C-alpha cells in the first residue's frame, strides 16, 4: 500500500529504467550528511485528517507524508487521489498503511483520529469514546518515532492532549494540542468583519479550553498595533460588554454551526494545523494559542492540565509561554476553564 507502481520498473521483466534514463555525472560526492528529509505523519484519514494532509502538501511543508487509518480501502483511495495530483504539486513522497510502522522516523505526528462530533454534542462528551482509541494510537507513534513532536487535533483536544502526554511518556514540550488556534482565527475574522479590516491586521486570542469555557482576551486586542478597548475609552466611544460577549459566543458556536450545516469541519482546521506545523518544523518561533501543560502559569496550580495559552513554537516543540497581561476577570475565567478540564480528567484514571 505504500506506493503505486513506479514507471522506473516498466522495462522488460520489470527492469528498472531509472539507472538507464540518466547518465551519471563523474567524480561525484555523496549528499551532505547535514541535509535531511522532513516527514509528517497524519493519523486518521477522515475529513479533518485529509484536509490537514492536503494543506501540508500544497504548502510544501514536508518531503514525505505518511497516512494511517483503520480502513484500508479508504486509506488507499485517499493516498492514490493525492498521488495523482503529483504533476501540480511540489515533489512529496506520499505513503499510507494501516500499520504504524509506516510512521517511523516522523518529525511531526498529527493525530486526528477519533469519533466524529455529532451536531449539538459538547466536545467534552466525546471523551470516553476517544480515550480508548488513543491507547492504540499513541504508544506505537512513540515507539517508531521516539524523537517526534505529537500534535493532537482530535476532540476534546485539551483532555486528549493530556492523555497523549501520559501515554507517550514524552516531555511536555513535545506534546501540543491544536487548542484555540482555530478559535482565535475565528475571533480575528469576526472582529475584522465588524471593523471592516483585514483579519491579518487583527491581534486577538482565545485561550483556555477549546470549547464552552474558553476565554476571550479582550484587554489585549489590537488592530494595526492600536489597542482597541483603550482606544475606545480614550476617544470616549461607548461600547457594551454584551456586544463583546456576543462576539465571543459566536466564536464558541462557530464549530457547532458548521457541523449542523455540512456535518463536519475540515478546511479551517486544515489550515490551522498546517500553520502550526510550519512554525514547528521551520523553527519559526511564532506565538500561537495552543494546548500546553499549563501548570504553573497564570495561577493554575491545582494539577496537570493542558489548555491553550499563548505559546512560542519551534523545532523543539513548545519553547515557552508568553507572559501576557491578563485582567483579574480574564485570569479568573482561565482558572475556571482549567477546573472544568481537570474535573473531566479526574474520571480517566490515568
From TrEMBL:
Residue span(s) of domain Lactate/malate dehydrogenase N-terminal: 38-177
Enzyme Commission code: 1.1.1.27
**Key words, A-Z:** NAD, Oxidoreductase
Superkingdom of the source species: Eukaryota
Q: Which sites are catalytic?
A: 210
Catalyzed reaction equations: (S)-lactate + NAD(+) = pyruvate + NADH + H(+)
* One GO BP: lactate metabolic process
GO terms for CC? cytoplasm
InterPro entries the UniProt entry points to: L-lactate/malate_DH, L-lactate_DH, L-lactate_DH_AS, Lactate/malate_DH_C, Lactate/malate_DH_N, Lactate_DH/Glyco_Ohase_4_C, NAD(P)-bd_dom_sf
A Pfam family annotated for this UniProt entry: Ldh_1_C
The family line of this record is: Belongs to the LDH/MDH superfamily. LDH family.
Q: Which HAMAP family does the entry mention?
A: Lactate_dehydrog (MF_00488)
- Under what name is this protein listed? L-lactate dehydrogenase
Amino acid at each position: 500500500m505504500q506506493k503505486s507502481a513506479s514507471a522506473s520498473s516498466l522495462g522488460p521483466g520489470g527492469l528498472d529504467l531509472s539507472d538507464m534514463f540518466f547518465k551519471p555525472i563523474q567524480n561525484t560526492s555523496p549528499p551532505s550528511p547535514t541535509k535531511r528529509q522532513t516527514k509528517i505523519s497524519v493519523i486518521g484519514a477522515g475529513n479533518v485528517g485529509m484536509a490537514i494532509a492536503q494543506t501540508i502538501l500544497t504548502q510544501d511543508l514536508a518531503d514525505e507524508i505518511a497516512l494511517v487509518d483503520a480502513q484500508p480501502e479508504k486509506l488507499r483511495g485517499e493516498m492514490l487521489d493525492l498521488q495523482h495530483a503529483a504533476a501540480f504539486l511540489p515533489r512529496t513522497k506520499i505513503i499510507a498503511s494501516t500499520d504504524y510502522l509506516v510512521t517511523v522516523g516522523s518529525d511531526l505526528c498529527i493525530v486526528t483520529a477519533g469519533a466524529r462530533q455529532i451536531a449539538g454534542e459538547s466536545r467534552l462528551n466525546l471523551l470516553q469514546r476517544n480515550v480508548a482509541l488513543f491507547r492504540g494510537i499513541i504508544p506505537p507513534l512513540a515507539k517508531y518515532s521516539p524523537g517526534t513532536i505529537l500534535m493532537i487535533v482530535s476532540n476534546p483536544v485539551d483532555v486528549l492532549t493530556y492523555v497523549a502526554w501520559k501515554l507517550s511518556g514524552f516531555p511536555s514540550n513535545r506534546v501540543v494540542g491544536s487548542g484555540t488556534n482555530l478559535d482565535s482565527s475565528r475571533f480575528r475574522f469576526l472582529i475584522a468583519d465588524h471593523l471592516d479590516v483585514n483579519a491579518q491586521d487583527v491581534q486577538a486570542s482565545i485561550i483556555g479550553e477549546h470549547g464552552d469555557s474558553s476565554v476571550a482576551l479582550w484587554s489585549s486586542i489590537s488592530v494595526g498595533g492600536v489597542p482597541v478597548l483603550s482606544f475606545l475609552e480614550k476617544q470616549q466611544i461607548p461600547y457594551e460588554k454584551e456586544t463583546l460577549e456576543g462576539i465571543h459566543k459566536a466564536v464558541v458556536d462557530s464549530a457547532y454551526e458548521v457541523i449542523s450545516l455540512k456535518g463536519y469541519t475540515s478546511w479551517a482546521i486544515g489550515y490551522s494545523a498546517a500553520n502550526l506545523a510550519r512554525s514547528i518544523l521551520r523553527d519559526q518561533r511564532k506565538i500561537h494559542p495552543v494546548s500546553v501543560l499549563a501548570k504553573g502559569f497564570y495561577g493554575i496550580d491545582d494539577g496537570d492540565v493542558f489548555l491553550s495559552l499563548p505559546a512560542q513554537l519551534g523545532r523543539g516543540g513548545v519553547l515557552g509561554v508568553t507572559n501576557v497581561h491578563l485582567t483579574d476577570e480574564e485570569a479568573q475565567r482561565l482558572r475556571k476553564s482549567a477546573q472544568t478540564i481537570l474535573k473531566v480528567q479526574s474520571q480517566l484514571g490515568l
